Amino acid sequence: MNQIVETFTRNLTFSPAFDKRNPSPSKNYGIHGVEMRFLLMGPLGAVQFVLYTNWHLPHVEKEMMEKPVDAIGYHCSRPMPADLGYHSPKPMYKGQEEFDCDLLPGGKCYCDGSGLNAIPVFDILVSEGEEALWKKLEDYYHIIFGEGDAA
Predict the structure, then answer these.
(1) Average pLDDT over residues 131-136
(2) DSSP code for 91
(3) Total domain count for the chain?
(4) Is residue 130 part of a domain?
């Protein structure tokens, strides 16, 4: 019996927090905390889980902590699952738009994702740890790229 062993590349990146507020409305890019991206690359494309940590720059954190919670709408250090998505070299549905992509060969991809679908993946990370998250991403990869059952 032949068994195909699939090779995946795991990549975990942290993007730094920023404060790009500007008095000019046309140049105000706001604030954002550290962003974590778990990326699983395979021969058919890539899948990702993105987590907004809400770890802000020290001066932003201080500013937010001095405001009442109602003024900011959330506690600034609570993580937020942001995306469970994919990057494919070919369209996954009719009319899907092509994007510039620094992940796949050729510099273009077709991508899509869901913040709501990221919540259960975050729960896996919190309750079972990193290895369980990578396993979930492998399962998701097989579903997205036609090698698994969505049920």
Answers:
(1) 98
(2) -
(3) 1
(4) yes
